[in-house]
From TrEMBL:
The keyword Coiled coil applies. One of its GO terms (cellular component) is cytosol. The keyword DNA damage does not apply. GO terms for biological process: regulation of neurotransmitter secretion; synaptic vesicle exocytosis. SUPFAM superfamilies: SNARE fusion complex. This is Complexin-2. Residues 105-115 have a biased composition (Acidic residues). Belongs to the complexin/synaphin family. Keywords: Cell projection, Coiled coil, Cytoplasm, Exocytosis, Neurotransmitter transport, Nucleus, Synapse, Transport. Residues 14-84 have a biased composition (Basic and acidic residues). It comes from Chunga burmeisteri (Black-legged seriema).
Amino acid sequence: DRPIVLCCTGATKDMGKMLGGEEEKDPDAQKKEEERQEALRQQEEERKAKHARMEAEREKVRQQIRDKYGLKKKEEKEAEEKAALEQPCEGSLTRPKKAIPAGCGDEEEEEEESILDTVLKYLPGPLQDMFKK
């Protein structure tokens, strides 16, 4: 019977480190690390460029759909709504209260009216005639 022989050259290096020996320094370790970092950066840039191209393609398709159906972007809609709120419409029946100049409006018409005159305004025509006589 033959004895079993294990051959582990890597194990002897690790044993030396465990026993307090110094690690063998790879002279090209820093250069390799820099190359690895550069490769990672390059992969990340390629990934970002790919995603930017895909998003541009998606936006192109979205715009075609908007054009086909007459839709507007969310940002455009919000901008138009904001502008519509800021600009009062010409001929609008409602206007902001700030736009009424002081001293204008109902105040001039109500020059010391009596209560009887006010009540008469709201009565039907024949009744108004009766009270006026």
